[in-house]
Amino acid sequence: MPELPEMENYRKMLSASILNIPISNVIVNRDKSINVPPAEFSASLMGSKVIFVERRGKYLIFHLNNGRRLLLHLMLGGLLYMTRGDEERPSRTTQIEISFGDKVLYFIGLRLGYLHQLSAKETEEALSQLGPELLDRRMTKERFVSLMKKRRGALKSLLVNQQASAGIGNCYADEIAFHAKIHPASKVQNLTNETLEQLYESIHHVLKEATEGGGYMEMPFTEDDDLTGHYADQCKIYDHEGEPCVRCGTSIVKTEITGRKVFLCPNCQHEM
Protein backbone atom coordinates (compact mmCIF):
# COMPACT_ATOMS: atom_id res chain seq x y z
CA MET A 1 0.00 0.00 0.00
CA PRO A 2 1.37 3.46 -0.85
CA GLU A 3 2.53 5.26 2.29
CA LEU A 4 3.53 8.84 3.07
CA PRO A 5 6.65 8.95 0.82
CA GLU A 6 4.83 7.43 -2.16
CA MET A 7 1.88 9.82 -1.81
CA GLU A 8 4.16 12.82 -1.31
CA ASN A 9 6.03 11.80 -4.44
CA TYR A 10 2.72 11.69 -6.33
CA ARG A 11 1.73 15.07 -4.89
CA LYS A 12 4.90 16.71 -6.17
CA MET A 13 4.59 15.22 -9.65
CA LEU A 14 0.90 16.05 -9.94
CA SER A 15 1.55 19.61 -8.80
CA ALA A 16 4.08 19.99 -11.60
CA SER A 17 1.75 18.48 -14.22
CA ILE A 18 -1.95 19.28 -13.90
CA LEU A 19 -2.51 22.53 -11.98
CA ASN A 20 -4.75 25.14 -13.59
CA ILE A 21 -5.40 23.04 -16.71
CA PRO A 22 -9.16 22.70 -17.42
CA ILE A 23 -10.47 19.15 -17.16
CA SER A 24 -11.46 18.18 -20.69
CA ASN A 25 -12.74 14.62 -20.25
CA VAL A 26 -13.77 12.23 -17.47
CA ILE A 27 -14.30 8.47 -17.83
CA VAL A 28 -15.60 6.30 -15.00
CA ASN A 29 -15.14 2.57 -15.59
CA ARG A 30 -16.08 1.45 -12.09
CA ASP A 31 -19.00 3.08 -10.30
CA LYS A 32 -17.92 1.78 -6.86
CA SER A 33 -14.69 3.79 -7.02
CA ILE A 34 -16.64 7.05 -6.70
CA ASN A 35 -19.35 8.29 -4.33
CA VAL A 36 -21.85 9.92 -6.71
CA PRO A 37 -23.50 8.72 -9.96
CA PRO A 38 -20.95 8.62 -12.81
CA ALA A 39 -22.84 11.14 -14.95
CA GLU A 40 -22.98 13.61 -12.06
CA PHE A 41 -19.32 12.97 -11.18
CA SER A 42 -18.19 13.62 -14.75
CA ALA A 43 -20.41 16.62 -15.42
CA SER A 44 -19.34 18.42 -12.25
CA LEU A 45 -15.65 18.04 -13.13
CA MET A 46 -15.79 19.09 -16.77
CA GLY A 47 -14.12 22.48 -17.28
CA SER A 48 -12.99 22.80 -13.66
CA LYS A 49 -9.33 23.06 -12.66
CA VAL A 50 -7.19 21.56 -9.94
CA ILE A 51 -5.59 24.56 -8.24
CA PHE A 52 -3.76 22.74 -5.44
CA VAL A 53 -2.83 19.16 -4.52
CA GLU A 54 -2.51 18.44 -0.82
CA ARG A 55 -1.33 15.30 0.97
CA ARG A 56 -2.74 14.25 4.33
CA GLY A 57 -1.26 11.00 5.58
CA LYS A 58 -1.85 8.43 2.83
CA TYR A 59 -4.55 10.59 1.20
CA LEU A 60 -4.33 13.09 -1.64
CA ILE A 61 -6.75 16.00 -1.80
CA PHE A 62 -7.31 17.68 -5.16
CA HIS A 63 -8.58 21.23 -4.52
CA LEU A 64 -10.81 22.41 -7.38
CA ASN A 65 -11.38 26.00 -8.44
CA ASN A 66 -15.12 25.60 -7.74
CA GLY A 67 -14.45 24.97 -4.05
CA ARG A 68 -15.03 21.21 -4.24
CA ARG A 69 -12.47 18.53 -3.44
CA LEU A 70 -11.48 15.13 -4.80
CA LEU A 71 -10.34 12.86 -1.99
CA LEU A 72 -8.12 9.97 -3.09
CA HIS A 73 -7.08 6.93 -1.11
CA LEU A 74 -5.29 4.27 -3.15
CA MET A 75 -5.53 1.57 -0.49
CA LEU A 76 -3.94 -1.80 -1.37
CA GLY A 77 -2.93 -2.12 -5.02
CA GLY A 78 -3.87 1.37 -6.18
CA LEU A 79 -1.60 3.56 -8.28
CA LEU A 80 -1.57 6.58 -10.59
CA TYR A 81 -0.23 6.84 -14.13
CA MET A 82 -0.19 9.77 -16.53
CA THR A 83 0.33 9.86 -20.29
CA ARG A 84 1.03 12.82 -22.51
CA GLY A 85 0.15 13.32 -26.16
CA ASP A 86 0.63 10.14 -28.17
CA GLU A 87 2.06 8.00 -25.35
CA GLU A 88 0.40 4.62 -24.92
CA ARG A 89 -2.26 4.17 -22.25
CA PRO A 90 -1.45 1.73 -19.43
CA SER A 91 -1.99 -1.97 -20.13
CA ARG A 92 -3.86 -2.48 -16.85
CA THR A 93 -7.57 -1.89 -16.36
CA THR A 94 -8.35 1.65 -15.27
CA GLN A 95 -11.17 2.60 -12.94
CA ILE A 96 -11.17 6.36 -13.60
CA GLU A 97 -9.54 8.53 -16.28
CA ILE A 98 -9.35 12.33 -16.11
CA SER A 99 -7.95 14.37 -19.00
CA PHE A 100 -6.16 17.68 -18.55
CA GLY A 101 -5.73 18.89 -22.12
CA ASP A 102 -3.41 16.37 -23.81
CA LYS A 103 -2.53 14.75 -20.46
CA VAL A 104 -4.54 11.82 -19.13
CA LEU A 105 -4.40 10.83 -15.47
CA TYR A 106 -5.29 7.16 -14.91
CA PHE A 107 -6.47 5.81 -11.56
CA ILE A 108 -5.58 2.12 -11.48
CA GLY A 109 -6.27 -0.66 -8.98
CA LEU A 110 -9.08 1.14 -7.16
CA ARG A 111 -10.76 -2.06 -6.02
CA LEU A 112 -10.50 -1.05 -2.37
CA GLY A 113 -9.41 2.54 -2.98
CA TYR A 114 -11.61 5.41 -4.08
CA LEU A 115 -11.84 8.92 -5.52
CA HIS A 116 -14.65 10.77 -3.76
CA GLN A 117 -16.03 14.16 -4.69
CA LEU A 118 -16.70 16.15 -1.51
CA SER A 119 -17.22 19.64 -0.17
CA ALA A 120 -14.49 21.25 1.93
CA LYS A 121 -16.45 20.46 5.09
CA GLU A 122 -17.06 16.84 4.07
CA THR A 123 -13.36 16.42 3.34
CA GLU A 124 -12.46 17.78 6.75
CA GLU A 125 -14.93 15.38 8.39
CA ALA A 126 -13.59 12.42 6.39
CA LEU A 127 -10.07 13.09 7.66
CA SER A 128 -10.98 14.17 11.17
CA GLN A 129 -9.75 10.96 12.82
CA LEU A 130 -6.27 11.10 11.29
CA GLY A 131 -3.36 11.66 13.63
CA PRO A 132 -0.78 14.42 13.24
CA GLU A 133 1.71 14.74 10.39
CA LEU A 134 5.06 13.76 11.85
CA LEU A 135 7.03 15.80 9.31
CA ASP A 136 4.98 18.95 9.92
CA ARG A 137 7.16 21.84 11.11
CA ARG A 138 4.85 22.20 14.11
CA MET A 139 5.68 18.65 15.22
CA THR A 140 8.69 19.47 17.38
CA LYS A 141 10.71 16.85 19.20
CA GLU A 142 9.22 18.01 22.49
CA ARG A 143 5.65 17.74 21.21
CA PHE A 144 6.35 14.31 19.74
CA VAL A 145 7.70 12.98 23.05
CA SER A 146 4.69 14.43 24.88
CA LEU A 147 2.25 12.74 22.48
CA MET A 148 4.03 9.38 22.68
CA LYS A 149 3.95 9.50 26.47
CA LYS A 150 0.17 9.28 26.25
CA ARG A 151 0.26 6.09 24.15
CA ARG A 152 0.51 2.43 25.07
CA GLY A 153 1.22 -0.80 23.19
CA ALA A 154 3.82 -2.18 20.80
CA LEU A 155 5.88 0.31 18.82
CA LYS A 156 5.00 -1.33 15.50
CA SER A 157 1.28 -1.06 16.23
CA LEU A 158 1.61 2.58 17.24
CA LEU A 159 3.58 3.61 14.15
CA VAL A 160 1.00 2.15 11.75
CA ASN A 161 -1.99 3.45 13.73
CA GLN A 162 -3.33 6.25 11.51
CA GLN A 163 -5.11 7.85 14.47
CA ALA A 164 -1.80 8.15 16.31
CA SER A 165 0.21 9.45 13.35
CA ALA A 166 -0.69 9.80 9.70
CA GLY A 167 1.04 8.19 6.76
CA ILE A 168 3.24 5.37 8.07
CA GLY A 169 2.57 1.74 7.07
CA ASN A 170 4.36 -1.58 7.37
CA CYS A 171 7.46 -0.77 5.34
CA TYR A 172 8.46 2.50 6.95
CA ALA A 173 7.48 1.38 10.44
CA ASP A 174 10.07 -1.40 10.14
CA GLU A 175 12.69 0.90 8.62
CA ILE A 176 12.15 3.49 11.37
CA ALA A 177 12.39 0.94 14.19
CA PHE A 178 15.57 -0.48 12.64
CA HIS A 179 17.16 2.95 12.25
CA ALA A 180 16.31 3.75 15.89
CA LYS A 181 17.66 0.35 17.05
CA ILE A 182 14.39 -0.42 18.84
CA HIS A 183 12.64 -3.78 18.72
CA PRO A 184 9.19 -3.27 17.10
CA ALA A 185 7.55 -5.20 19.96
CA SER A 186 8.84 -2.74 22.57
CA LYS A 187 6.09 -1.17 24.63
CA VAL A 188 5.88 2.54 23.93
CA GLN A 189 5.09 3.28 27.57
CA ASN A 190 8.46 1.76 28.54
CA LEU A 191 10.54 3.96 26.25
CA THR A 192 12.63 6.65 27.88
CA ASN A 193 12.57 10.28 26.76
CA GLU A 194 15.99 9.76 25.20
CA THR A 195 14.74 6.76 23.21
CA LEU A 196 11.64 8.66 22.07
CA GLU A 197 13.86 11.51 20.92
CA GLN A 198 15.90 9.02 18.90
CA LEU A 199 12.65 7.64 17.46
CA TYR A 200 11.68 11.16 16.37
CA GLU A 201 15.04 11.58 14.62
CA SER A 202 14.67 8.20 12.93
CA ILE A 203 11.17 9.02 11.69
CA HIS A 204 12.45 12.22 10.09
CA HIS A 205 15.50 10.53 8.62
CA VAL A 206 13.66 7.58 7.06
CA LEU A 207 10.61 9.45 5.76
CA LYS A 208 12.65 12.29 4.25
CA GLU A 209 15.17 9.90 2.67
CA ALA A 210 12.36 7.71 1.31
CA THR A 211 10.50 10.69 -0.15
CA GLU A 212 13.63 12.00 -1.84
CA GLY A 213 14.16 8.49 -3.23
CA GLY A 214 10.67 8.27 -4.72
CA GLY A 215 9.36 5.74 -2.19
CA TYR A 216 9.79 1.96 -2.25
CA MET A 217 6.91 0.98 -4.52
CA GLU A 218 8.01 0.54 -8.11
CA MET A 219 5.10 2.18 -9.90
CA PRO A 220 6.35 4.91 -12.28
CA PHE A 221 4.02 7.88 -12.67
CA THR A 222 4.93 8.60 -16.30
CA GLU A 223 6.74 6.86 -19.12
CA ASP A 224 9.94 8.79 -18.39
CA ASP A 225 9.71 8.70 -14.57
CA ASP A 226 13.07 7.44 -13.34
CA LEU A 227 12.65 8.39 -9.67
CA THR A 228 9.58 6.57 -8.36
CA GLY A 229 10.45 3.36 -6.52
CA HIS A 230 14.18 3.98 -6.16
CA TYR A 231 14.02 3.79 -2.37
CA ALA A 232 13.34 0.05 -2.69
CA ASP A 233 17.08 -0.40 -3.17
CA GLN A 234 17.76 1.62 -0.02
CA CYS A 235 15.50 -0.31 2.35
CA LYS A 236 17.72 -1.78 5.05
CA ILE A 237 15.36 -4.37 6.48
CA TYR A 238 11.89 -4.50 4.90
CA ASP A 239 11.46 -7.62 2.74
CA HIS A 240 15.06 -8.72 3.47
CA GLU A 241 14.29 -11.87 5.46
CA GLY A 242 17.34 -14.13 5.79
CA GLU A 243 19.76 -11.51 4.47
CA PRO A 244 22.60 -10.19 6.65
CA CYS A 245 21.93 -7.05 8.66
CA VAL A 246 23.82 -4.08 7.18
CA ARG A 247 25.01 -3.14 10.69
CA CYS A 248 26.02 -6.41 12.31
CA GLY A 249 25.65 -9.22 9.76
CA THR A 250 23.00 -11.11 11.75
CA SER A 251 20.27 -12.66 9.60
CA ILE A 252 17.16 -10.53 9.34
CA VAL A 253 14.06 -12.20 10.76
CA LYS A 254 10.47 -12.01 9.59
CA THR A 255 7.87 -12.41 12.32
CA GLU A 256 4.45 -11.08 13.37
CA ILE A 257 3.42 -8.54 15.97
CA THR A 258 -0.30 -8.10 16.66
CA GLY A 259 -1.09 -9.78 13.35
CA ARG A 260 1.24 -7.65 11.20
CA LYS A 261 4.36 -8.89 9.46
CA VAL A 262 7.56 -7.40 10.82
CA PHE A 263 11.17 -7.49 9.64
CA LEU A 264 13.85 -6.95 12.27
CA CYS A 265 17.41 -7.65 13.31
CA PRO A 266 17.34 -9.75 16.51
CA ASN A 267 20.82 -8.51 17.44
CA CYS A 268 20.66 -4.77 16.67
CA GLN A 269 17.14 -4.02 17.81
CA HIS A 270 16.57 -4.24 21.54
CA GLU A 271 13.24 -4.76 23.28
CA MET A 272 12.56 -2.26 26.02
Short description:
With 272 residues, this protein is of the alpha+beta class. The chain has helices spanning 4-15, 38-45, 120-126, 141-148, 155-160, 170-180, 193-212; strands spanning 23-28, 50-56, 59-64, 69-73, 79-84, 94-100, 103-108, 114-118, 253-257, 260-264.
Q: Would you report the number of β strands?
A: 10
Total number of domains: 2
CATH structural class of the largest domain: Mainly Alpha
Structural class: alpha+beta
Estimated radius of gyration:
20 Å
Largest sheet, strands/sense/barrel: 4 strands, antiparallel
Q: Could you please say which CATH topology of the largest domain applies here? A: Helicase, Ruva Protein, domain 3
The percent range for strand residues is 15-25%
Mean pLDDT: 95
Shape: globular
Specify the number of helices. Answer: 7
End-to-end C-alpha gap: 29 Å
CATH architecture of the largest domain: Orthogonal Bundle
Low-confidence stretches: none
Percentage of residues in helical conformation: 25-40%
Q: What pattern of helices and strands is seen along the backbone?
A: HEHEEEEEEEHHHHHEE
Strand order of the largest sheet: 1-6-7-5
Family: Belongs to the FPG family.
Cofactor: Zn(2+)
GO molecular function: 8-oxo-7,8-dihydroguanine DNA N-glycosylase activity; class I DNA-(apurinic or apyrimidinic site) endonuclease activity; damaged DNA binding; double-stranded DNA binding; zinc ion binding
Domain Formamidopyrimidine-DNA glycosylase catalytic: 2-113
